[in-house]
Amino acid sequence: MTLEPKQEHDPWPPLPWEEGRETLATFHQWMQIVGKVRVALAPWVNHQWHVTLHPSARGFTSRPIPFEQDTFGMEVDLLDHQLLIERSDGREGRVALEPRSVADFYQALMGELRGIGVEVTIHGSPNELPDPIPFRENERDGHYDRAYVERFFRAMSSSARVFEEFRGRYIGKCSPVHLFWGALDLAVTRFSGRPAPEHPGGIPHLPDWITREAYSHEVSSAGFWAGSDSTPWPFYYAYAYPNPEGYPEAPVQPAEARWDSDLSEFILPYEAVRKAPSPEDHLLAFLTSTYEAAAELGGWDRSTLEWAPGARPPVGGHRNRP
């Protein structure tokens, strides 16, 4: 049986911040709760890659999480608007994604986990958010606009497709394409392989040792963020750590990209990408040019980190470009 798409399938839909602001505030904290379950039970991986969520065909997945002699996983389904929890012994639970407070979502998820035999204690307050309210006490946030969430997912999914192609063009150490629920941003990070100076830390409600381990080695990182009160529009970002001399002045593409001194990173409005004749090429130009600026100015050994000039990655990518 073939079903029609739930909405007109625009892979790069509009995402006005004001329209989705309250929904994203709620959804962000829900994803922190899901992510913290993974933190509590998953084995440590460098740069905190064990805590992230990952794009799936229907939303975001935790991937398998070890528990006792089994595994379980959580799928945030943004098409049927449910959180599906599945244990490898066949037990499962569901939490509806609908207008409900953070406290209500927290209690529902913990109850469903207990129902399949998973007992877990998480850190009970948000990270990377100002003035955090413990999840079990937060009755204020309860907005959930299904139509906006579906558009948000399509934008994330389309971005992830391009991020995956960009990732495949690098043979050095590179992160997965993943969702960091601390800031609710989709990200991919390339590494030079060299140690970096100690990071100063200072991210709100995030221990400095975590930040310092995450940035223990030189990086060129890029991602997608849906916006915030201080930057009320969705955009792509790119930054280097440490910033090589001259990096903010480096010429990058496309024309709409610019250095933001407040954020200390290059940004490219999502609107510029979605309205481009080829959004994929527009975004890929941003990812590539910002990386090349970081690598050239930072003196990375590009000959050992990238495919040889003119070489192609193995056949299999949806675009398969050199």
Structural domain count: 2
Q: Which spans have pLDDT < 50 for at least 5 consecutive residues?
A: none
Instruction: Give the CA-based shape.
Output: globular
What's the quaternary structure here? Answer: single chain
Pairing-aware structural class of the strands and helices?
alpha+beta
Average pLDDT score: 93
Radius of gyration: 20 Å
The helicity comes to 25-40%
Number of helices: 7
What's the number of extended β-strand segments? 12
Q: How is the topology of this model organized?
A:
Layout: H1 17-41, E1 54-55, E2 59-61, E3 65-67, E4 70-77, E5 82-87, E6 92-96, H2 102-115, H3 146-168, E7 178-180, E8 185-195, H4 208-214, E9 217-225, E10 235-241, E11 258-260, E12 265-269, H5 270-274, H6 279-297, H7 302-305
Give a summary of the structure in a few sentences:
Strands 1, 2, 3, 4, 5 and 6 form a six-stranded antiparallel sheet that branches. Strands 7-8-9-10-12-11 form a six-stranded antiparallel sheet. It has helices spanning 17-41, 102-115, 146-168, 208-214, 270-274, 279-297, 302-305, and strands at 54-55, 59-61, 65-67, 70-77, 82-87, 92-96, 178-180, 185-195, 217-225, 235-241, 258-260, 265-269.
